[in-house]
Every structure is written in C-alpha cells, then in structure tokens.
Amino acid sequence: MEPLARLPVFLALEGKRAVLAGASQAAAWKAELLSAAGARVDVYADEPSDEMLLVAGDPPRGEIVVHRRGGRPRIYPAPRSPSAPSMTMTAHPHSQMPHAPPAFRSM
Known about the structure:
Elements: E1 17-21, H1 25-36, E2 40-45, H2 50-57, E3 64-68, E4 87-90, H3 102-105
Parallel strand pairs: 1-2, 1-4, 2-3
Helix pairs in contact: 1-2
C-alpha cells in the first residue's frame, strides 16, 4: 500500500452528537459534512462566519447549533456521559489554539 496523506474515515453518525470548534469557512464545510451524515452538530465559535450561519440556518440533515462563546468553553463532558460527543473536530489553525491538548498542537 502507498503512504496516505490523510486517512479517509467513514463513521455512522446518525443521531449522534458532534462537537466542532471553529468559525471559518472550513469549519462551516465540516459542520455541513457532519450534518449531512446525520449528526447533531454543536459548533463553538467566538465569531461565526457568514458561511457558518448560513449552513446552521439550513442544515442538510442533522441540526447545527452555533454557540457563541469567548474564551475556552467546557465542551467535553465526562467520557461515558450520555452527552459526550461521538466526534470532535477543530477548524482552528493550531497556532491559534494555545489551550489545545498537546496531541492537537503537534498535528
């Protein structure tokens, strides 16, 4: 097998919660993809882009909820909590995420 630049991942997200941190056009695209897969998407952004607000206003499938919050929101419940997300994703440049876990900063 040849080396891959990215790992294509296929997840069953119907009815599951997904958390997305970011406000950019790229974040809007990711929110739209997660919604199209049937996930309920919680987006955490200081200032959501126009694209994000448009896709949240008319999601393809699963609901998209934009939470306007400054600082560092607590978005990760206890691991086995019923409200724990099935998928977490970021659309922030890593240099803008000083509070990110080390694994995210090294990506």
